[in-house]
Amino acid sequence: MFAPLLDILFPQETCCICRKPGKFGSRQPWCQECTDKMIELQCSCSICEKCGKYLEEGETLCADCRNSPPQFEVARAVGPYEEPYRIATKVLKFMGRKHLAPQMGNMMVKKIQQESRFGKIDLILPVPISRKGLQKRGFNQTELLARQISKELGVKMDSTVIRRVKETPSQTELSREEREKNLLCAFEVTDKKRVYNKNILVVDDVYTTGSTGRECTRTLLEAGAARVCIITWATGKGF
Ligand SMILES: [Zn+2]
Ligand SMILES: [Zn+2]
Q1: Averaged confidence pLDDT in the chain
Q2: How far apart are the first and last CA of the chain?
Q3: How much distance in Å is there from the Cα of 46 to the middle of ligand 2?
Q4: Which of 30, 50, 98, 196 has the most CB atoms around it within 10 Å of its CB?
Q5: Number of the ligand closest to the Cα of 176
């Protein structure tokens, strides 16, 4: 649904993050203080130069990237998976407030434009969510973000290229090894011609252990993609 229509149908009278009263909508879903907090958090920590996870001061690569270098070119996130970023993710995903997606997507675009390693992107692919998740929520939050990024960058988005072929149990309680085992061969490229030799941007909401990004990358490269970059809304800590 178009953002202006969402605003008419569902006018927002509080900041979706801190609940402060005011006039909000898809152009401005949260208040100035929440915006300031987001910006402050972006600048407060150093990040892994490969996967973008937040690091202790003075480090350049996280332990995961040192121990097993990812195949993707670069992964970046708008901010750390802490308030207010964490709340925005939940409000979009679990409360179904789709009017957050345009602003979140625009901030992801800014991040992409700040990092030259993303290069010229040919195709944007949202990470598919599980069938259960789709049934429960009725939408894929990652696809909403990917759609906005596609609109802003003027690059094609296709939500049918990667398919989930294995239903994976909830990942949140699992260790990195368990997640990786779980996700192995969880995705499939439906039409290899569409990814062949392409520079692909994979979009996800949160980068936690990186298992999803790694597995999507492996699947895409195996199908003939030239390179894969990852953008997420939020990311975890690499220490
Ligand atoms: Zn607020
Ligand atoms: Zn890393």
Answers
A1: 90
A2: 40
A3: 11
A4: 30
A5: 2
The first and second tokens of residue 95, run together, are 């409360």
Ligand 2 centroid to residue 75 C-alpha, Å: 8
Q: Are 228 and 200 within 8 A, CB to CB?
A: yes
User: How many A from CA of 5 to the centre of ligand 2?
Assistant: 40
Angle at CA of residue 163, ends 159 and 167, nearest 5°: 130
Sequence spans of domains, the chain: 3-235
* CATH architecture for the domain at 3-235: 3-Layer(aba) Sandwich (3.40)
pLDDT digits (tens, 9 = 90+) for 126-155: 999 888 878 888 889 999 999 999 999 999
Ion ligand 2 residues within 5 Å by Cβ? 48, 50-51, 53, 62, 65
Res. 123 pLDDT band, cuts 50 70 90: very high
Kindly tell me if the per-residue pLDDT of 166 is higher than 90. no
For residue 79, what pLDDT band results from cuts at 50, 70 and 90?
Answer: very high
Distance of CA 80 from the midpoint of ligand 1 (Å): 17
| CA contacts within 13 A on the Cβ side of 167 | 6
Q: Which bin fits 48, alpha (ψ -120 to 50), beta or left (φ > 0)?
A: beta
- Which parts of the chain are beta strand (E)? 12-14, 21-24, 46-47, 54-55, 75-80, 123-126, 162-164, 187-189, 199-207, 227-235
Please name which of 108, 85, 97 lies closest in space to residue 26, comparing C-alpha atoms.
97
